Amino acid sequence: MNVTDGQLREVALSRAEYDEICRRLGRAPNAVELGMCGAMWSEHCGYKNSKVLLRRFRAPPEGPASSRSAPTAGATAAPPPAGRVLIGAGEENAGAVDVGDGLAAVFKIESHNHPSAVEPFQGAATGVGGIVRDIFTMGARPVAILDSLRFGPPDDPARGARNRYLCEGVVAGVAHYGNCIGVPNVGGEVVFGRSYSENPLVNAMCVGIARAGRLVSSGATGTGNSVLLVGADTGRDGLHGATFASVDDPQASHRGVVQVGDPFREKLLIEACLEAMDAPWLVAMQDLGAAGLTSSVVECASKGESGMEIDVARVSRRETGMTPYEVMLSESQERMLVIVRRGQEGAAQAVFARWGLHSDVIGQVTDDGMVRVMEDGQTVAELPYSLLTAPPLYVREGVEAPSVRALRERDLSTLPVPDDLNATLLRLLAAPNIAGKQAIYRRYDQTVQTNTVQAPGGDAAVLRLKGTPRGIAVATDGNGRYCYLDPHAGGRIAVAEAARNVSCTGATPLAATNCLNFGNPEKPAVYFQLQQAIEGMAEACEALGTPVISGNVSLYNESGGEAIYPTPIVGVLGLMEDVTRHCPSRFQRSGDVIALLGDTLEELGASEYLEQIHGLVAGRVPEIDLAREGAMQRLCRAAITGGLLRSAHDCADGGLAVALVESCSGAFGLPADDAAGAAPVIGAGVELPGSWLRMRPDAVLFGESQSRLVVSLAPEDWGALVALAGEHGVPLHRLGRTGGERVTLAPYIDVELARALETHATALERGLRVTLPAAL
């Protein structure tokens, strides 16, 4: 086959990569084989620019041998807490941790950025569908969805209308799919920034619960066992989706690469596959996602160290005239590959038929290490799975952009302090990144399945583990502005804040998942960002005992040659022994003591305040001492477990002043039990410590010093908290009392509580020009 440069571009292969394929095969690939190689060697599937760096995350699984797979070769990391990791990064469709009572939490986060830039509704909807399939294909029932979203500013003079269109479409797609399949959306974040205007980020995380000893593998074993394709018929939607996600301009493609979802069929797949996991005929399961049938067949053969032969003529189709190339690379949704013991195909198909799902026996497991594709008995592709799973790995030289270094070194000491700090606080509360996100998350069903204890809006979502006294807490976090100015520090902070949010509920963080959203890694400045962020994240995971057990990389997030901010998103899952003792984010009673765990430094760099008030993205990212961070989180959890704290909320965007207002809000972190009624709002009176008054007022109020929590407690418990803080070596400041109808941070801030809360609650709704829907 004489291949042209245009044909190689279509499958996202370079000429050198094509030559390498020919060398390994000893011949030129045909058209079907070329498409399969392009898909599997794409960045989306092959991780060729990131795999070497990702080894920094690898943690060896620990736990009962009956409930875990073999460790990944060459894995390195600190051991996880109490040996709870059952399945580590890269071993299966998602990672898994032991949460006690014979249960495992299975979770992962993935991106669907490029499709969402082209068709936001379907791009986001199928992103949710894909991550949910990764969870239930392992035998876990999906119990929670979280979504971490990034858009351009809704008020941008030139691109605001499109930014609002993308935001509305993505949120509608997330809501539609999750609501229809009956999985609650319980958390996440929404951030707006100019770098995301033409390249939104849509990262979806799913958590499932399974029996620890019954996790389902994707490895195809048993020569002669049958291969079933279950679910939707195959069409042309999503062709080249994997390669499309591995180029640097999402607008350069067309809607044909965007998959089209059917959440009602997905719901049937969930129930059918969960029933199948108890059947004696089940060998393995693998969902069809990026690269469609190609990737599923290759992954099953590779994980099982076997081989596979399929006949595309047996694949049911919803469009006529489809070629083997199209069948192998279609990314039609709601499809599963199921490996069934030979001779029991009828029993397997009967289970799926009972759920209204069509299935076809399309092939069998072999033992020759080959992926063989037939059409009516004629071979149309024959490749070793070892070739398809071993793309060339690139190690590049990362070089920091001098312009970024100059921004980081900018002297901020000469910036004027605003004359009216009350007005400054109100302006920050109205900023899209700080304003309440009710206009978005109230579109999601948050309580279906009746596991939700703390719903969106708080530091972390809390869910009960039915049948046990335990609960899990889960949160996502990431700050692209931090990572732009200092990717190493930004990576550390992303992990620390996600774990901090989980700790605020009283849960102990167990493990992490991440989605690494970056630009074109072939550019030295972008590769530097990726390299440094991963190193920072790995250091934080080791220090905080949260090994990375799953994740995803999304590169080439660029438009018009401009990259997004480097945006690693971290999801952390934690466990609490008694879910009834979870700690809320908001103040609970008037007259309680308000205190700050941690210390405040004179830091303005990289802050939301600096960008919103002074129009600057500059300065040094706040310092983070991981040992102090760990001590502060342990103190928080100990104080909650000991019944000392009535609320805990971390200081993040907007600093102490914003955190205080958020802690006053009755709608902030609204528990599921309060969803039908208004929770109380409670004011706060704070007098700032004298030592802080020697610093810039704006740094004290709005600086984003790390490792800080605003907490409240009964006055009679203050002595016990002081003693506990001393044991943990954590600074503790008594700031004031809850109560009243104002928020004061004397001597700088004195605002009416009602006005502050109204500004915080309604600004984003006005900015997006949407009508707030009624609660579900």
Explain this structure to me?
The protein is α+β, with helices and mostly antiparallel strands and 776 residues long. It has a domain at 217-391: Phosphoribosyl-aminoimidazole Synthetase, Chain A, domain 2. The protein is built from 26 helices and 28 strands. The strands form five sheets. A seven-stranded mixed beta sheet has the order 8-10-7-11-9-12-13. The chain has a seven-stranded mixed beta sheet with strand order 23-25-22-26-24-27-28, with helices on both faces. Strand 17 (508-517), helix 20 and strand 18 form a beta-alpha-beta unit. The longest helix has 22 residues, at 160-181. Mean pLDDT is 92; it is low at 59-80, 249-255 and 668-678.
Would you report the number of β strands? Answer: 28
CATH top level class name of the domain at 217-391: Alpha Beta
Spatial order of the strands forming the largest sheet: 8-10-7-11-9-12-13
What's the mean pLDDT score? Answer: 92
Per the CATH scheme, the topology name of the domain at 217-391 is Phosphoribosyl-aminoimidazole Synthetase, Chain A, domain 2
Strand content: 15-25%
Name given to the CATH architecture of the domain at 217-391: Alpha-Beta Complex
Which class do the helix and strand fractions yield?
alpha+beta
Helix content: 25-40%
Q: Give the terminus-to-terminus CA distance.
A: 57 Å
By DSSP (H or I, 4+ residues per run), the number of helices equals 26
The main β sheet shows up as: 7 strands, mixed
Pick out the low-confidence regions: 59-80, 249-255, 668-678
